[in-house]
Amino acid sequence: MTEIRLPISITYETEGPVAIGDVIVALQAAEAIADDAVALLPSLIDGLQINGSSLNVRSLEQGSLREAFFLALLFTYQGALEEEVPPMIEDLFNITVSDQYDTLATLVFLIVIFYGAGLAIDVVKKAFSDSLPRAKFEELVKLLAAETGKPAADIRDIIEAKFQKPAAAKRVVRNAGKFFLPSHKGSNAPLKVDRDTISSEVVRQIPFDGSTDKENDFDRYKPYEAVELEIHAQDKDKSSTGWAAVARGISDKRLKVRVVEPVHPADIWQKDVVTADIVLVLKLTSDGYVPAEIQVTRLVEPGEN
């Protein structure tokens, strides 16, 4: 087994001092996020086996709050990788990921944060949201795909599987909010992770710590494109009640349909089948998450797909 220490630098560009309590909350969130990132690494880097890890504070400075960590990993390689270390793993160790991040560990750390932030926005809005944090998540996933050679879709599936259970989803949402607490209390101050600046506009969209702690069903929202819907019930005058459909290829169940602007009920009135971009709402039951509602967000014109 080998141990390495990977640096992670975080700077909250606040104008004034940060309360000790807020620093502690952010540090604890960073530690929990690092734990999730470490747990993901073996699935993202073929042949890597993590035997232990710890996030340690290297330095802590006030003014603009600057937290310098090192992530200690105790690892081994599997099989043939013991004889030949692939360049990707060398990149992880040798700090050659990109000009913005020091290591792949930092990149995965940020992916966990922005996955949680995007999920937090969905929880608050009770709908799938094309937010700036979700766009950042997608940007990071594409960069990780380019670095590791894994398809972006596979990386998304790995992350979704990691946080599929309600307890894990709530944890990552909660920690994302806590991580941004110093920025939120500093008038949505921007922050830097290594050399990547997270703008005030992005920070502003992330729910404030505690705003997702209220009792709720913690529904999940999955977008799909160009889905054929068999319309089973219609109501021309209403968009959120009176509609039901079966989403072919996704669920055999007849599900409630909600028509979301810019789509209007009249657009699909008296049609037996339509093709549409949808968001599938999944609700938690004793059997886990199950499809419960279809949100129709855009109609696909014939020949478009």
Question: What is the structure about, briefly put?
Answer:
The chain contains 9 helices and 10 strands. It is α+β, with helices and mostly antiparallel strands and 305 residues long.
Protein model, in words:
By secondary structure, this protein is an alpha+beta fold. It folds into two domains: 2-205, no CATH class; 220-299, OB fold (Dihydrolipoamide Acetyltransferase, E2P) (Beta Barrel). It is 37% helix and 30% strand. The protein is built from nine helices and ten strands. It has helices at residues 20-44, 87-94, 104-125, 132-148, 152-162, 166-179, 181-185, 200-205, 265-268, and strands at residues 2-12, 48-61, 65-77, 191-193, 196-198, 220-233, 244-247, 255-259, 273-285, 288-299. It has a five-stranded antiparallel beta sheet. A hairpin with a 3-residue loop joins strand 2 and strand 3 (65-77). Helix 1 packs across helix 3, helix 1 packs across helix 6 (166-179) and helix 3 runs antiparallel to helix 4 (132-148). The longest helix is centred in the first third of the chain and has 25 residues, at 20-44. The protein is elongated, with a radius of gyration of 22 Å. The termini are far apart. The model has no long low-confidence stretch (mean pLDDT 85).
